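Entry 14: structure prediction run for RNA methyltransferase. Input pasted below.
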Amino acid sequence: MPDIREITDLSAPELDVYARLSEGQLLHYYEPDTGLFIAESPKVISRALDAGYEPVSLLMEPEHVEGEAREVVSRCGGIPVYTAEARILTELTGFQLTRGVLCAMRRRRLPDAASLCAGARRVAVLENVMNPTNVGAIFRSAAALGMDAVLLTPGCSDPLYRRAARVSMGTVFQVPWTFFDRQQCPWPERGMEALRELGFKTAAMALKKDSVSIGDPALLAEERLAVVLGTEGDGLAAETIADCDYTVMIPMAHGVDSLNVAAASAVAFWELGKR
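Run finished. Output tokens:
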């Protein structure tokens, strides 16, 4: 049976995770143990549960307990389910909930990059992609278009941040991912070395005079390939491009010089993810 608790006091400390703690504070909530993240919408929460993440509490409009979130509530056992009308939830959280449901969940320890990619053939590497919307969109493309894993540099937005997970439609719980460790596997020096040790060739997505087309036969024939995408605006660092085995461009028309990193990822994954 769900433990339904109507919200009567917006300052109640048990609501801090939804109302008063930043994403960074949630990340370190149980430090030195793993922290928390907030999943938004029944679909995203369901995919997190499918992946084995542990729910801590739920927050939703009363109508969703037996409505859109009924299956999610039933899967979460006896954890607290805090309820209030949409207006109150918006006042509490500071934003309008997507589909009226949030879930606080425990994070899991991340694997190291080498073990994550041990059996992979096509991986995406994100260098300092800071916008959570872009990170979420890239994960959705990675899931749909055949990437086996995603690696992120420490400067990237966390895929479990609420907006990233929501934009991804929960695919951040389906595609294996991890961060390069800042000390043990700094990017790009040790990160590139680790990829090469695993047998990967690296392809930097960048507009350079010596770039090869994304449809280049030699590129498509690589047995193991890491597709490297750069930050919004500036793109990849010059050092990263120089360290990669290929510099790759997407041919453009009408004088367009580049695509948003999320759009470029979809094109690259579609073409380079072909087996």
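Notes: The longest helix spans residues 132-144. Will compare against the previous run tomorrow.
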